[in-house]
Amino acid sequence: MIRKCLFPAAGYGTRFLPATKAIPKEMLPILNKPLIQYGVEEAIEAGIKTMAIITGRGKRAIEDHFDISYELEHQIKGTSKEYLLNEIRSLVESCVFTYTRQREMRGLGHAVLTGEPLIGNEPFAVLLADDLCEGESVGVLKQMVELYRKYRCSIVAVMEVEGDSISKYGVVEAKPLEEGVYVVSDMVEKPEPAEAPSNLAIIGRYILTPDIFEILQNTPPGKNKEIQLTDAIRTQAKNGMVIAYRFRGKRFDCGSVEGFVEATNYFYNKNLVN
Fold this sequence. Notes:
This protein is α/β, with parallel strands linked by helices. It has one domain (4-273): Alpha-Beta Complex (Spore Coat Polysaccharide Biosynthesis Protein SpsA, Chain A), CATH 3.90.550.10. The chain has ten helices and 13 strands. It has a nine-stranded mixed beta sheet with strand order 5-4-1-6-11-8-12-10-9, with helices on both faces.
């Protein structure tokens, strides 16, 4: 039912300057694999085969990564290093990659709206590559796709956040529906800790119904004068039903240096064990 995954990847990655001056932040590697490849693999596990990527100026490396490099293939063909390309070859062969550019940086909501021609009139997933997730038994996106089959409405992934960190996130006001699942009544973008309606913070995994595009077209700029996806989903929650899902697994904020280092150490130690 969810055939397409939208990857907003047009941001500047300013928290990683100067590294991201010429390298897209989505191409920063955790060990030997770029962040966006982890996201594509998570989408494939969820049964999604079409990757719709919103890029911007200086982001050609993303397109080149999910393509064939004939010169590289020729250079390592028949050598002991040829197997290192097996994983990315498999991704390129099993998926369709589509691209469009976000010409202005006007917020996550605007990035999603930019992807409408790639998505069309159908429900879709949204994955922020710098939120690196690992599910407990299956990936976070697969958990959400299974939940969508049951409720057929927009879904946001949430996690519990304590203290002042809550002001970095969109936060939901919600009532329990079942274990780990909540019906959203309201959402606030980056509230002050004392004003947060709960400690359930939205992370970079969404399933959205296609009416979100019309709502985004009519959503005025909000926090930081940007078109906030949170504001549009809040309208969906007021007019219908939106679910918040407390996912099973780990999440690393690889948009920050601290989270990036934490993820690197985690996957390095995991590889040692395996």
